[in-house]
Specification:
This protein has helices spanning 2-9, 13-25, 35-46, 54-81, 87-117. The chain has 119 residues and is mainly α. The chain has one domain. α2 (13-25) packs across α3 (35-46) and α4 (54-81) runs antiparallel to α5. The radius of gyration is 19 Å and the shape is elongated.
Length: 119
């Protein structure tokens, strides 16, 4: 994505990051000079020519798996020991699952929202 922004719009690193974050999280850029680059990148992502947020997507899947794992272990320990203290671990796992799902939804909707906001 950085290479594409550099080749297509000749943006320095700070501006590439602003554009990339705006598209990934579906935000409007503050600098009007970056509007065209943001809309262009969002359109490219919507057409499937570029894949955005690979590392964030991987982190979300890891967080989701960890949350499900903590919930499973918590339920197992709760059933075998009947200890109410395990509820904290189950709630923590549920929190991780919710955060992972919200992050995935944000990344999926980001390019479309950025395309609309940066018209």
């Amino acid at each position: 994505m950085d290479k594409w922004l550099l080749e297509q719009h000749h943006l320095p690193a700070v501006q590439r990051r602003q554009v990339r974050d705006a598209v990934m999280y579906g935000r409007m850029v503050r600098d009007p000079a970056l509007t065209h680059a943001t809309r262009d990148l969002a359109g490219t992502a919507l057409r499937g020519e570029l894949k955005l947020g690979r590392s964030i997507r991987i982190a979300s899947y890891i967080t989701l798996a960890a949350g499900v794992g903590v919930i499973a272990v918590g339920v197992f320990v709760w059933v075998t020991t009947a200890s109410p203290a395990v509820v904290v671990a189950i709630l923590l796992g549920a929190w991780w699952v919710v955060r992972a799902v919200l992050a995935m939804r944000t990344i999926q909707r980001g390019p479309g929202r950025a395309y609309q906001l940066n018209a």
